């Protein structure tokens, strides 16, 4: 359980609570404008954030203040959380409308249109009116689940994002290479751009053969190989990607809280 579960999920996984996808939350003009600005002004908004982070977080005198401002933004405005494939699939069954849209990072940074972000409800309606992204493609929960499984097998990490917390409007499907925010998250460990998932990977050492596939697949440097056995360290975000690359099925995700209780 995290602070978001306490505040927005009545003590359970907050991102599975239907009220956090409710279209009525998007009746707020402030939230509608924020969603529009994320998609319309993406390059300006995140290009500027990265440039400011690169300068401010290297100057000791301003670092503390900059961290406070960034972390406030990535908590109350646009908060990212890793979710497992299983939870991503469950999430797609919650809102009425489920749609695919071009990934803003791929579009603005690499000039490629790749439909891989999954939008919900009113967020889809708003983005459908932005010419660069229209039309969004309505796919429904079942097709979204198949789509997510396919991406997962390729090593894609699923993250949910708020547009003015607690409203959740999108599941991004990305990797450290192509995603501005994942990149920022990796570069500055003190920044809470993306929060860890509620699960963590564990290895069955009885069957692990030490092949190292999981280590190569992990984008968070959370796996080491010692004496021909994989070991998961504290950097595990619980994305579950490593599971797909283990030839003997030695990795599973378990609730993070269980592992913390065992330690
Ligand atoms: S060890 Fe596995 S679950 Fe943990 S971050 Fe790496 S790929 Fe994701
Ligand atoms: S991929 Fe599986 S078998 Fe290979 S090192 Fe990782 S846990 Fe062990």
TrEMBL record:
InterPro entries on file:
4Fe4S_Fe-S-bd, 4Fe4S_Fe_S_CS
One GO MF term, please?
oxidoreductase activity
Designated name of the protein:
4Fe-4S ferredoxin-type domain-containing protein
Superkingdom, according to UniProt? Answer: Archaea
Q: Which residues form the 4Fe-4S ferredoxin-type domain?
A: 199-227, 228-256
Species annotation: Methanobacterium bryantii
Pfam family membership, one = Fer4_9
């Amino acid at each position: 359980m995290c602070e978001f579960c306490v505040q927005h999920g009545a003590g359970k996984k907050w991102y599975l609570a239907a009220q956090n996808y409710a279209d009525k939350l998007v009746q707020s003009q402030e939230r509608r404008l924020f969603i529009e600005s994320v998609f319309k002004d993406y390059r300006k908004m995140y290009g500027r954030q990265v440039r400011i982070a690169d300068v401010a977080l290297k100057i000791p005198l301003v670092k503390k203040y900059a961290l406070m401002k960034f972390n406030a933004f990535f908590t109350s405005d646009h908060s990212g959380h890793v979710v497992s494939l299983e939870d991503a699939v469950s999430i797609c069954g919650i809102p009425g409308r489920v749609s695919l849209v071009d990934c803003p990072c791929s579009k603005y940074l690499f000039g490629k249109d790749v439909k891989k972000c999954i939008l919900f409800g009113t967020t889809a309606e708003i983005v459908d009116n932005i010419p660069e992204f229209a039309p969004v493609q309505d796919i429904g929960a079942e097709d979204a689940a198949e789509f997510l499984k396919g991406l997962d097998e390729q090593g894609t990490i699923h993250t949910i994002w708020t547009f003015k917390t607690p409203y959740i409007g999108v599941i991004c499907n990305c990797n450290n290479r192509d995603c501005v925010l994942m990149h920022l998250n990796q570069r500055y460990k003190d920044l809470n751009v993306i929060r860890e998932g509620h699960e963590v990977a564990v290895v069955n050492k009885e069957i692990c053969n030490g092949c190292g596939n999981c280590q190569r697949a992990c984008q968070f440097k959370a796996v080491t190989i010692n004496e021909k056995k994989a070991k998961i360290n504290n950097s595990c975000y619980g994305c579950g990607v490593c599971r797909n690359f283990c030839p003997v099925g030695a990795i599973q995700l378990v609730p993070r809280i269980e592992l913390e209780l065992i330690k």
